[in-house]
């Protein structure tokens, strides 16, 4: 009976943490999906433009492929930045917070007598 109680208690504690992780992963997945959907939309727009000439000729001839390659590279390399935005552990590892000079120590002095 006691082991069943501990199993239920451990499961309830783990479920809160699992929900937190699930929310973070959902945010990361949605943001990544949004970035890649933008890349797909850009490719479709360029493909449609070659057939139907929707956009001006100056755009299609001069900057279309340069912008496409740049945006594609940026989208492919976006995942580390997305993780940096959403994951607190990665923020803690990469962003160094400077301590202020006026910080008061919270430790108590210990006097050792012999």
TrEMBL record:
The record's principal subcellular location, in a coarse class, is membrane
Q: Which Pfam families does its entry note?
A: Srg
Location of this chain's protein in the cell: Membrane
According to its record, how does it sit in the membrane?
Multi-pass membrane protein
Return the GO cellular component terms, semicolon-separated.
membrane
- Please give the Gene Ontology molecular function terms for this protein: transmembrane signaling receptor activity
Query: What is one process in the GO biological process aspect for this record?
Result: sensory perception of chemical stimulus
**Which InterPro entries does the protein's record reference?**
7TM_GPCR_serpentine_rcpt_Srg, NRL-Serpentine_Class_Gamma
| Keywords associated with the record | Membrane, Transmembrane, Transmembrane helix
Q: Which residues cross the membrane?
A: 25-45, 65-86
Q: Which family does it belong to?
A: Belongs to the nematode receptor-like protein srg family.
Put simply, this protein is called: Serpentine receptor class gamma
């Amino acid at each position: 009976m006691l082991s069943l109680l501990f199993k239920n208690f451990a499961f309830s504690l783990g479920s809160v943490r699992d929900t937190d992780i699930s929310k973070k992963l959902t945010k990361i997945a949605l943001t990544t999906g949004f970035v890649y959907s933008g890349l797909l939309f850009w490719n479709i727009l360029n493909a449609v433009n070659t057939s139907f000439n929707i956009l001006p000729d100056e755009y299609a001839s001069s900057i279309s492929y340069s912008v496409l390659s740049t945006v594609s590279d940026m989208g492919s390399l976006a995942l580390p930045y997305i993780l940096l935005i959403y994951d607190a552990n990665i923020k803690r590892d990469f962003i160094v917070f400077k301590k202020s000079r006026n910080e008061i120590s919270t430790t108590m002095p210990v006097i050792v007598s012999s």
